Amino acid sequence: MKKPDTLYYICHKDNLKSILEDGIYSRNLINQESIEHKDIHDSEVLARRNIIIPRINKPLADYVNLYFQPRNAMLYRLKCNIGANNLVILAVNSSVMGAKNSSLFTDRNAATSTVNFYSKLADLKHIDNKIFQYKYWTDSDDTKQKMMAEVLVPNKISASDILSIYLVKDDENVKNLGKDVIEQPDKFFYPIYRKRLTDKLFLSRGDMFFSNMQTFTISVNTVGIMGKGLASRTKYQFPDAYVRYQDDCKSKKLQIGKPTLFKRAIRIENELADEYLDESRLNGTRWFLFLPTKRHWRENSKFKDIEMSMQWLVDNYKKQGIQSIALPALGCGLGGLDWKEVGPMMCFYLNQLDIQSCIYLPKPNISDDLLSAEFLLIR
What we know:
Blueprint: E1 6-12, H1 16-22, E2 24-25, H2 27-32, H3 43-48, E3 52-53, E4 58-59, E5 63-67, H4 73-82, E6 87-93, E7 104-106, E8 117-118, H5 143-146, E9 150-154, E10 156-157, E11 162-167, H6 172-175, E12 180-183, E13 193-196, E14 201-205, E15 215-221, H7 229-237, H8 239-250, E16 260-262, H9 268-272, E17 287-294, H10 303-320, E18 324-328, H11 339-350, E19 356-360, H12 373-376
Parallel strand pairs: 11-12, 14-19, 15-17, 15-18, 18-19
Antiparallel strand pairs: 1-6, 2-10, 3-4, 5-9, 6-11, 7-8, 7-9, 13-14, 16-17
Helix pairs in contact: 7-8, 10-11
């Protein structure tokens, strides 16, 4: 891994004014100088980072901790616990990293027992370069911890080393602080695009698994193969869902026009977040609706097959207990279908549901006229 140009610091928005005036202080320096500061971490996290680490003979609280990749499980936990609107990400010049500053860096979350500490820039080769490419993470292959690799700068970082400020949405008060401000909701796990078609029907472009909808719809075939796309991601990120899907295929419960519902008991938030989630802020468990869009994975999707499943949803969502639902643009990716036909059909059926629903759009840009209520709700 090469030395990046930018590192990232996550903090509460209320701390911005003092940080931009005086710089970023380590937790222990904040305490020593009695600086007014709003914590984003709970007491348990703060206590862990105040324990002396034998390998460096200091507590982590003596350092300012920066991330190579801020869109990680720690940020997701903070988003769940205190809300993304209260958070900012500061882009920091990577010149703060180096032997002259006595800084360190790690190959994962610095508070974990398996972490390795490094001080020489040549040791950046031990940092997984893919942390900038990963779209999601899992515990099984350790990507969750690797994406929280840190740079530890002793005591303080100068305000002059702060390059820009990332926000989930525009804020005039922050703009007035005199730094480059970037509105980037996807950095905080929100859709980059969201449109309301009706009181209960929305369009989004982003990561469906970070949706707050109760039920996630997974496009599948009927032969038990999750080879590509959203299904493949489900297989690796939520292996219990993959096992259930295969069982449904083997037992013939899953058929064209007959989706199956996996009422998962495990909270997705607890898998996506670093530890110490505030359970009181969560909305409940997430379910998976396996909706067949192909008979065989080698085939293209058929419009009529998808329409049968949408009718099933209308007929069964109440008795199944579905309270809200997120869906991809069914068949429009690897299935070979066109949004011009699929979009209005999906909206026709979803508009019959008395619950919130959201369609996550396919990646290629779709012209505004094909996303309008006039076009999508005309059927």
